[in-house]
Amino acid sequence: KAGVTQTPRYLIKTRGQQVTLSCSPISGHRSVSWYQQTPGQGLQFLFEYFSETQRNKGNFPGRFSGRQFSNSRSEMNVSTLELGDSALYLCASSLGLLAGDFPETQYFGPGTRLLVL
Amino acid sequence: QKEVEQNSGPLSVPEGAIASLNCTYSDRGSQSFFWYRQYSGKSPELIMSIYSNGDKEDGRFTAQLNKASQYVSLLIRDSQPSDSATYLCAVSGNNRLAFGKGNQVVVIP
Questions:
Q1: Residues 57 through 116 of chain A touching chain B, CB cutoff 8 Å
Q2: Alpha-carbon dihedral of residues A2, B44, B26, B19, nearest 10 degrees?
Q3: B13-52 pLDDT, tens per residue?
């Protein structure tokens, strides 16, 4: 079974621009979660989507948004990029049959490394 | 208090020795616990999940969970150079997974 795929793998943008990242989950997985990873803050949760609905959201500003399509593929968008948005953006997929405090095992994609200049 | 804490600095272990990693968490209601391994420049890879108090063994890896003490640990037996990586502890809570900042393990041949 193919794993989680993310595109693009690398991206360079300038401050003020916007960016869209894409994630295709493992076949059959309906939940997609997004994380931002930086050396100083570690892995931080952005949001989670299931059946095209955002079920959960982390503590990030509104510049960070996402969506999920009917085929479970997900995109996240960051508008008005800031230098501090430079990070590795990871998506993870899971079956999504459970919610709440019993998250299922999440499998990560290779990530998109974003550099904001 | 941070949700998930992994306080130990880089851990250097000789090849063949046991590496021991610890993780504490703040949400007493957490039910699911995971250990991920992350090689430099790569994404996290799941190595263990544990849901019940006690030990769970998988090959050279053993996860230990003590919910009363809010403590999760990972033991790596017979450490190999390929085990050199950052190990991330993840804990369920508030409808999501919270991750610690990770512990770097260096296995010295």
A1: 58, 88, 90, 99-103, 105-111
A2: 130
A3: 999 999 999 999 998 888 889 999 999 989 999 999 999 9
